[in-house]
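[step 3/7] fold_predict: job queued, chain A
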Amino acid sequence: MAEFIPFVMFLVACLTLMAGYPVAFSLAGTALLFAAVGTITGHFDMAFLQALPNRLFGTIENTTLIAVPLFILMGVMLEKSRLSEDLLESMADMLGGFRSGLALSVVFVGALLAASTGIVGATVVTMGLMSLPTMLKRGYSPAQATGVIAATGTLGQIIPPSIALVLLGDTLSSAYQQAQLNMGIFTPKTVSIGDLFVGAIIPGLILVLFYCLYIVFFMRPVLAANTTQVTMTKSLSRAMRNLIPPIILIVTVLGSILSGAATPTEAAGVGAFGATMLAAFKGQLSIGRLREVAQSTTQVTSMVFLILIGAAIFSLVFRGFGGEEIVEQFFTDLPGGVVSATILVMLVIFLLGFILDFIEITFVVVPIVGPVLLAMGLDPVWLGVMIAINLQTSFLTPPFGFALFYLRGVAPDTVATSEMYRGVVPFIIMQLTLMLMLSIWPQIATWLPALVYR
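[step 4/7] structure written:
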């Protein structure tokens, strides 16, 4: 029965999370409880926990993770300074002459906001508050409006630079090195956050293209196009004034990484400084606004690193019970080899996305299954992009999708939950189609990194 202890520990952790306890304490508490019982029964050696201080000190020394608070600051500053709201209004004016112009504006602005914040909840709530009432007034059905907003909000999982890709890239980097060491390769290759950023660009753009094509050909609001009195020249000029600065900011951040001029951490610093300057130029940088941005950034950053500590304790105890060897043996014995193992892992991650946020899955699940899959020959960039899209899909899938919960919290009572569920179905199909395309043509994710970093 001892071989089932790691799986029971994982199940208990999930049940604790579903009961509503804080994530970091659920992971750490469950692990320490099982470690104590295992020590008493002779199934666990407490020496494994002696590695915890070195693990935590290594996390503190990890300069890559400094990008996390900086990217969070960049996103929160753009959100709190009303830059995204001005951008949505100007884009809606510019595209108002098209029948589906407002929905296209939501996708464009949501994609930029997703790239800048990288946090699903923040993007969905912001876009829901800004655009949902207007879309309903313009004649979009509740299903159409909520579907576009929820789907656009989840783009933060895949469009770089995003917090999800930063954390996933750092975790996959460690898993890739561990996989090679387990294979006897003592001069291991590395994979960086920059590799994952570059690999996610084309899939992210394809997904945005899918959304736009669906809106143009299949989404028809009841009312006619917006007959605004603002001339096309004036609306275009206003849109450019609001659109160009955040685009320049995002292109600067990504371009510095792609060109090798800056590490992701340095680029995050540029992004945070640039967002602050944009807020200042807009006249939105008051002392109160700075305090609000600093508080939000500190809260989110503290949550991320506290979860990282809890996940470190959990993974050490899981490894102490032999969970890593059990998972590796299980995958090796699967009929179908790496294909079956990959499909199973993707299914498990998809289901866990109903009850866990991407941070918990990145810190807990990926370190367990990542080394095994990478040792079986999978490309780390391809695997990272697939996991990101998979999580994006699970966050959108009824009835437990996190994006739907966030949107439900800001949507008016006149919008039925069933309509929200119906509205996201086409977008889920598009995301699954992209995953199928990546499975058939992995070069969609691997070609650009190989070209940039060769």
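[step 5/7] annotate
Confidence is low (pLDDT under 50) at residues 224-231.
Residues 55-452 form one domain.
exit 0
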